[in-house]
Q: What sequence folds into this?
């Protein structure tokens, strides 16, 4: 039974070693993520200094105005479509 118990201990040691290797990989990955986050934060700071977000807000506002204008045009086109259909029906009735 000592051989079986010894084998189990070796398996446990191997698993622990693998876990340590995995932790090293995860640690390296976390380091890379931290560097990426720091770069993003630096770019955001730079963007704030350059007024980038103000321009984004203005662009969003302009886009929303454009969407509203497009809705007005869409309603107008629907109205024109209804008028065309009505006129076409009237003309077809007159022809018959």
A:
């Amino acid at each position: 039974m000592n051989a079986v118990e010894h084998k189990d201990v070796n398996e446990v040691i191997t698993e622990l070693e693998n876990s340590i290797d995995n932790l090293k990989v995860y640690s390296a990955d976390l380091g890379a993520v931290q560097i990426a986050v720091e770069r993003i934060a630096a770019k955001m700071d730079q963007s704030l200094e350059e007024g980038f977000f103000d321009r984004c807000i203005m662009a969003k506002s302009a886009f929303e105005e454009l969407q509203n204008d497009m809705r007005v045009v869409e309603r107008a086109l629907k109205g024109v479509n209804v008028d065309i259909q009505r006129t076409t029906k009237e003309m077809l009735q007159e022809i018959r």
About this structure: The longest helix spans residues 2-50. The two ends are 104 Å apart (CA to CA).
